[in-house]
Design brief:
By secondary structure, this protein is an alpha/beta fold. The protein is built from eleven helices and ten strands. The protein has a single domain, classed as Aldolase class I (TIM Barrel), CATH 3.20.20.70.
């Protein structure tokens, strides 16, 4: 669906003062951390760390215009990606493991994060793309407050792993314009094996993505061909159908909508711990990818992309 350009969702909340209230409420989650479904319960305000390894101070690995994202995000000038350090999933095959597992990056103030958002807008980026934001949701909303007051007016993309608690997503309602969520596994045993014991991942991700769709609906495209609002789902295919791609496409078609934007990704390559796991030690074959595309077609997905 196409519509004319407009202000992003968070501007109204910033002007009304609601964004400040949301930031304050989210910061309270740090005292006994409940920002992801692991619910570590540690006090990040005192520097304690849980599974993800992050404290209450935001850490950023890099920030720049990115042209390797989905076409509706990139446009002519790129997606303004901010790669956050640490992760709540810690997948065995992570291709950015130095950032997610190792925590490489620089510590920033929330105001410093806001300045990065403004710089990306000044560079002409079409959106602010928050990569692995879950464990820094309070910092992001606080940064958004300062950036919006100084003129930030491009859409906010919440580029997450899908492992999100509903109570946090509900607090992001009206803040996030575009949800770009992974759906990694349909089998709890696979999630437990390859994402540091997150056996509840399929159930949590299904509920989280349904909430995202309730908030923003199907993908909406502006006159310049760039996304303004809506849900996008990524599914990284793994060798031997470990990710459960056949069940994933049926879930989207039956529980969400056949019109949902889906990117079936075939660029998996063995990295990090995958090199020690025989079942993960190869790329997805062309036959496996063709089979996945056929599954999507048979499920009736009308907006499935085969972008790699």
């Amino acid at each position: 669906m196409q519509q004319t350009d407009r202000h992003p969702a968070y501007v109204r909340l910033a002007e009304s003062g609601e964004l400040a209230e949301r930031a304050k409420a989210l910061y309270s989650f740090f005292r006994s951390c409940q920002l992801c479904p692991r619910r570590c319960g540690i006090n990040r305000l005192k520097g304690e760390t849980g599974v993800c390894g992050a404290t209450s101070r935001v850490k950023v690995a890099s920030a720049h215009p990115h042209f390797g994202e989905e076409t509706p995000l990139v446009g002519r000038h790129g997606s303004g990606t901010i790669f956050f350090s640490h992760c709540n999933l810690l997948c065995a095959y992570c291709q950015n493991w130095q950032i997610s597992h190792g925590g490489d990056g620089a510590l920033l103030s929330d105001e410093g994060l806001g300045r990065i958002m403004l710089r990306l807008q000044e560079l002409g980026c079409h959106n602010i793309n928050l990569v692995t934001p879950t464990h820094y949701a309070p910092n992001i909303v606080q940064a958004l407050r300062s950036a919006a007051a100084l003129g930030l007016r491009i859409p906010l993309v919440y580029n997450c792993g899908g492992y999100e608690p509903l109570e946090v997503l509900e607090m992001l309602d009206g803040i996030v314009d575009i949800y770009l969520a992974d759906f990694k596994y349909t089998d709890p045993a696979m999630a437990e094996t390859y994402s540091r014991g997150a056996r509840d991942y399929p159930e949590v991700a299904a509920a989280a993505i349904a909430e995202m769709r309730r908030q923003v609906g199907d993908l909406t495209i502006g006159e310049n061909g760039v996304a303004l609002r809506g849900l996008m789902i990524r599914h990284l295919m793994l060798p031997n159908n470990i990710a459960g791609t056949d069940q994933f496409v049926r879930f989207v078609a039956e529980k969400l909508a056949p019109s949902t934007f889906v990117n079936l990704m075939s660029q998996y390559r063995p990295e990090h711990e995958a090199l020690q796991r025989p079942e993960l030690r190869r790329r997805v074959t062309s036959q496996e990818y063709s089979r996945a595309v056929n599954w999507a077609r048979e499920a009736g997905l009308a907006n499935a992309s085969s972008q790699t």
